[in-house]
Amino acid sequence: MLSQLVGAATGFIVAAISAGGYAGIVLLMAIESACVPLPSEIIMPFAGYLVYRGDLGLAGVAVAGALGCVLGSLLAYAVGARGGRPAIERWGRWVLLSPRELALADRWFARWGRQTVFWARLLPIVRTFIALPAGVARMELWPFVWLTFAGSLPWCWALAYAGLRLAENWHLVREKLHGVDVAVAALVAVALAWALWHRVRALRHQQSI
Fold this sequence. Notes:
- By secondary structure, this protein is mainly α.
- The protein has one domain (2-89, 98-177).
- Helix content is 83%, strand content 0%.
């Protein structure tokens, strides 16, 4: 089932970039950064393969990918800023998020937000969703835009360059990055488990008082 989904996504990506060129790259990367599961590990390496063929330029491909990341991230940011925060304030306790923790997120992004957005864009999985908490924390918009672009550009360039080097074997990039995806997912799972344990422990402590 998973292989069929990946195959369908790959076919869609190949068709979109083949037909749209740079505009297709912008569109696809915007979709991915809007938290839709369309892997950049397929999008950018195929674009790199087209660079190998001489159809596109490496710099243009990287910039197009980064611009797409910004556009999609702005949508996710808006969801977090305009719709996500009221929903979290109302229903957050059901997902173990208290008003105090939300206020902490605000302070955290106020102090570390710029660094967080930049470095998160260089990590698989996490890079796709970082715009949501940035929006919830109401990070300043223009720093968010520029740091999203700055963090996305090396990611897009590296994947495209890998596709360029691998040529007809560009599809192997995703396979080689699978181990990294698993490691990042494991770290996220551990962090969520720790947050859950911490929250349950706090609730039990409040009930015992």
